[in-house]
Amino acid sequence: MSDPPDEPPAAEPTPTADDSAPDDAAASADGDPSDQPSVAAAAGIDEAVLDTPRELASTVRLQWILRSTIGAAVIGALATAIAYGVGVATSFLDGSIRTAATVGGAVFVLFVLIGVVRAVLLYRSWMYVVRADSLFLSRGVLTRVQTAVPYVRVQHIDTRRSPLERLLGLSTLVVYTAGSRGADVTVPGLTPDRAATLQRRLERLTTESEGADAV
């Protein structure tokens, strides 16, 4: 009589999804800390904006150049009138409209060039920083002006748009502060969406500062 065939070895149990779940959960809990939300994000504050220098929209240079061009046109017209009057009253100029217009045109071009250079340099110097306790501004061409506005002094914040700003797609943020007259600060050269976002963020930080100061 032949021996009975050997029985096949028992198959090892295949792990199920339920068996691996605790290990996955533990790996997730002990994973990279960067995968977990930070305290600033949990508090609703965009940490990428805090303490980060921000520039204005590049279109603001065109706004400043157009403003300076309007002023240059007024100054050029005054120079034309003065040159014509001086030419008529004295022999220094021939008293013709053409000569007076030449003088006024030269003055106009000079002030336009000055306005263009000023707009470029002012744009490079303009910078604002949203800090945890204050709004910091830095700007100026010949004279550098730096302003720190503590949130505890902020009364309210507005956005405004002039006809020229609406044409160029720009907006200005105005921060009204408590204190002496003229202490209000403005942040020009913002897009409407950026101005609205910045307004909401500053209002939230102001509210948080008032609550912390009250405590």
From TrEMBL:
<feature type="compositionally biased region" description="Low complexity">
    <location>
        <begin position="13"/>
        <end position="38"/>
    </location>
</feature>
<feature type="region of interest" description="Disordered">
    <location>
        <begin position="1"/>
        <end position="38"/>
    </location>
</feature>
<protein>
    <submittedName>
        <fullName>Membrane protein YdbS with pleckstrin-like domain</fullName>
    </submittedName>
</protein>
<keyword id="KW-0812">Transmembrane</keyword>
<keyword id="KW-0472">Membrane</keyword>
<dbReference type="InterPro" id="IPR005182">
    <property type="entry name" value="YdbS-like_PH"/>
</dbReference>
<feature type="transmembrane region" description="Helical">
    <location>
        <begin position="99"/>
        <end position="121"/>
    </location>
</feature>
<keyword id="KW-1133">Transmembrane helix</keyword>
<dbReference type="Pfam" id="PF03703">
    <property type="entry name" value="bPH_2"/>
</dbReference>
<feature type="domain" description="YdbS-like PH">
    <location>
        <begin position="123"/>
        <end position="201"/>
    </location>
</feature>
<feature type="transmembrane region" description="Helical">
    <location>
        <begin position="64"/>
        <end position="87"/>
    </location>
</feature>
